[in-house]
Amino acid sequence: MEFGKQHIENLFSDLQDGRRLLDLLEGLTGQRLPKEKGSTRVHALNNVNKALQVLQKNNVDLVNIGSTDIVDGNHKLTLGLIWNIILHWQVKNVMKNIMAGLQQTNSEKILLSWVRQSTRNYPQVNVINFTTSWSDGLALNALIHSHRPDLFDWNSVVCQQSATQRLDHAFNIAKYHLGIEKLLDPE
């Protein structure tokens, strides 16, 4: 991932000082967001606080996410923050245009509906949520396969022994063929 000329090598440590997070928000909002250049914890907290304020002004859901969580490199809450940013600026806007006729207003329900639609031809897959439905690796592989069947043989994935193998397969396909970095460990 690249924001300007700065690369993200490690999502958790690279966002801790708040500067790259502010760079990202500058790109998404079109606003200039000054950053504190010092390297102390106070500077990092101020930068992350500024980023969280921008997100709140843009109605991004920040339940239980605080500046200390990001500065301390809390994996779960950092991923939650990034997911909420993606959900707000990518999924909501894209899905709003695609699904304008639907009465659903909850972005998660819309995304879940899209996943179900994409995986409907895979009888082994039943996506009912964004937690347990993904643990066996079949849903993620089916989602990739439904859009890029040329990348792998579906039956060979179904036959793999373990959920870990299937998840590892999906993450590797996503990384090497779709340019999506591996942020989670199948274990």
Automatic annotation (TrEMBL):
SUPFAM superfamilies: Calponin-homology domain, CH-domain. This is Calponin-homology (CH) domain-containing protein. The keyword Transcription regulation does not apply. PANTHER family: SPECTRIN/FILAMIN RELATED CYTOSKELETAL PROTEIN. The keyword Repeat applies. It holds the Pfam family CH. Gene3D superfamilies: Calponin-like domain. GO terms for molecular function: actin binding. It comes from the Eukaryota. Transmembrane segments: none annotated. Keywords: Actin-binding, Repeat. It comes from Monodon monoceros. SMART domains: CH. InterPro entries: Actinin_actin-bd_CS, CH_dom, CH_dom_sf. Residues 1-90, 105-187 form the Calponin-homology (CH) domain.
